[in-house]
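Review form for a predicted model. The reviewer records the input and the model, then writes brief findings.
Reviewer: anonymous (R2)
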Amino acid sequence: MSLSQDPIFPVLQKYVVCGYHDITGEPWAGMSGRHDRNGQAVPTTNGAGPHNIQMFLLSPDGVVLTCLPGYWAPQDLLTEVRFAAQLDQVWKNNSLSRSQKEQVFKQMHMAHAQEHPRGMVARSHLQGFDALYEAEKPNSDFIKDPKYMAANASGSWGSTGETAKHPPMSAFKTTDVVMHERMAKRPFEAFSHFDVAQYSDYGKWKYDKEEDARMADGSVDHEKLKMIGTIGDPESEKAHKHNANQAQTSSGWGNRGWGSQSQ
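Model under review:
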């Protein structure tokens, strides 16, 4: 997890008051594979899994300075934390009117999107399945040029045959750019009024790297994957709970486990 790694971890420790909110059951919460906190981790890209996690950077009075949807690499999260500190100074500036603050907010977000380090941009491309999903969505703000939408409408993308063509990554904006474009439309909004569902709406609703079911050679143990289940899927949650109860009963936990009155 990026939060516990350098270079962002010491900054969060010293300068940021951290908290979390479980979004299970929220209308914008997607589905993901169950991941044990001691399980394996695999690399991914900035902005992957936007329905599963959103990282808000707020002012002390609860105003949204920026929000990072999905996973972000620790060095890139640090870039955005530093940027949020600059926005916080604008918000605290009593010499500016509210409308002036909002204008500065918009300008700073749009400018910052063009100032990201090259490595950050490279780490911010859409996952292939998310790119295809956005290509098939009408009026996606990830599409750089309308001509790509026309190509999609012709049916050249998304087929399963050997001649299937997938949209080139050059057809899409990167997640770091879209994040700032979307934030620029939400200048200094209160967290309580922030439309998380709309803001984080891109890519597929299920994001699963299957970390805890991967074997040493990188292949996936599909039987184990079934046992792990999917968070956010009611049927999978039900099956997972059933399997867990069976495991407890067979091991004796169900009879003399925690909470039992037996001695």
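Findings: Residues 2-125+174-251 form one domain.
Further findings: The chain has one domain: 2-125+174-251.
Recommendation: see findings above.
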